[in-house]
Amino acid sequence: MPKPDSSRIPSPDRVAMRRRLAVLMWRVVAVLAFGLGLLGVVLPVMPTVPFLIVAAWAASQGWPAFETWLLAHRLFGPPLVRWRERGAVPRRAKWASTLMMAASAVGLQFFAQIPQWARIAVPAVMVAVAVWLWQRPEE
Question: What distance in Å separates the CA atoms of residue 3 and residue 107, rounded to the nearest whole number?
Answer without folding.
Answer: 65
